[in-house]
Design goal:
With 150 residues, the protein is an alpha/beta fold. 34% of the residues lie in helices and 25% in strands.
Length: 150
Amino acid sequence: MKRRQFLCSVAAVGSISLVGAARAAGESMIVYKDPNCGCCEAWANAMSSAGLSVTVKHDNDLAAIKGKYEIPAEMQGCHTAVSGPYFFEGHVPLEAVETVMSKRPDIAGLAVPGMPAGSLGMGNDPKASYDVYSLSKDGKTEVFNSVRPS
């Protein structure tokens, strides 16, 4: 292989990692949240800063939204975001959102139950430790990825 071909191949492979962020950029997302919740606002702002077109809807009946998307009680967080066919329940990390937006897995959405300290929107804690769950369209859950201290 000639040097020029090799360098072009390396550049092409290296650019694949940028596809996820580029794919997420320009996507639209609706974030349903309690009007008084600041951490939800911080999470929505992070999504917007990443290039998603975010619309925040203040809703006093979040249980109805969670019911509409069939999010099990044990998987619920403090806000629900919807983008295309997916929901993002709670403080899902940006990287996980970008992965779903770029790879388009056959799932209903992702969830971070509760409000884990150090999760996106819940402060910057390098000791944050929590799991991100994928929810299948038939209601099954499994760990999508884990956030653990370095």
